[in-house]
Write the structure tokens for this entry.
Amino acid sequence: MGRAGCCCRGAERLASPFLVRRFRLALALIVALCCGSHTGECQVSTPQCRIQKCTTDFVSLTSHLTSAVDGFHTEFCKALRAYSACTQRTAKSCRGNLVFHSAVLGISDLMTQRNCSRDGPTSSTHPEVHPEPCSYHSRTQHAHAHSHVHAHMHSHAHGHSHSHSHSQPGYLFCGLFGDPHLRTFKDSFQTCKVEGAWPLIDNDYLSVQVTNVPVVPGSSATATNKITIIFKPYEGCTDQRVYQAVTDNLPAAFDDGTVSSGDPIHTFTGADGAAGKVRALWISERTPGHHVELHAGYIGVTVIVRQLGRYLTLAVRIPEELAQAYDATQDLQLCLNGCPSSERIDHGGHLPLPLSPPALGLQLHQLRRPSYASQTQAYLYGSPQAFGVEGAKERCREKLEVQDIYFHSCVFDLLTTGDANFTVAAFSAQKDMESLHPHRDRWRIYPRGSATSILNSDCQPIKQLTVLLLSALSVTLMY
């Protein structure tokens, strides 16, 4: 869900793993060159050569097919014959075109492997596919396909030669961890006080609220010990569900004891290509008591909740159009607008490290007292340690190789609290971000003013070119 792709995405899962291996080289060329010409990065096709449209039509005809569906072989062969007929119609104008010749070879290979006859019925270019009403991905894909068809028909009817752009739905990411550190929908990284209950997200579909408590006496830093998530009712898919997690109670069910909501929908495809059934809203317990994921397929939302040490972390991915569905009474949302300036600990993106833990000495002294230790559960999470700057950096390097803002936040948390669990919290928050954030080129954020930050911003074009070259080289070396 929400994975970015190019005009030919989905093509690699149209056949069995064996066929994919046989067809990989031709398919890689089609995908790479087709997408490059689509984005203007590599103009291979001439305006008269319509191989790109042939390929996208084939993907459109087969992207919903799996081997578990009845009549898969018949429908796949019909799509292959339509693909072949399309290439024949544009053969003259595509003479010498590498994409075209790769497609022709690939079609022949697939027809042989699938025992498809050359003669027979072909698929309609624009079959009527009914979307799953309780699948956000299915609804948006269907709407996108229809808008593309209507725009294409409109351009031909009016003699327009220019293309119409219809972007796929975009997704946003928000994360909260540590003392606490907030990554907003706009990829602004902030460290805030925000003691008490605060709304992270509050729109017409979803509400997420966190409660933060002081970490150590004498410090303004807090951490999250309670998370409340409300999935609002969606007609025909689910009624309202509430999920609540507190320290030492990370349930694998909603407040009413259920683990899912809504009728089964056929939207899940396993690694083996077989289709399975999931519901509109469901909970997956990854590690009992420590890691839970909530999937709301009807609105395209994924939430990850973890407990690390005595505090909680949160990561959310949500479609941009739904995140913007709120009114004037819902404008206080930390994920949307960040923390109020009066609640910020960082200075415009710069997080100054504390010279010394403000109350760590007092805390260590209290923990050594037998009467105090017997009345607390601190031993369950490990006793605080006195970290210096270099010691904190060394501990954070054990988990975080790149010295980005997650590493810097880890060092800040160790110096502030002495709690080594915050190292794991920063590492897990980074991994959750990488699994949910839709834009890989925005993953890394560096402390403002650092040499790494300046280098990273100035060299983005070079980095992107390097990635493209390495990708091309990897494809070549595979063969």
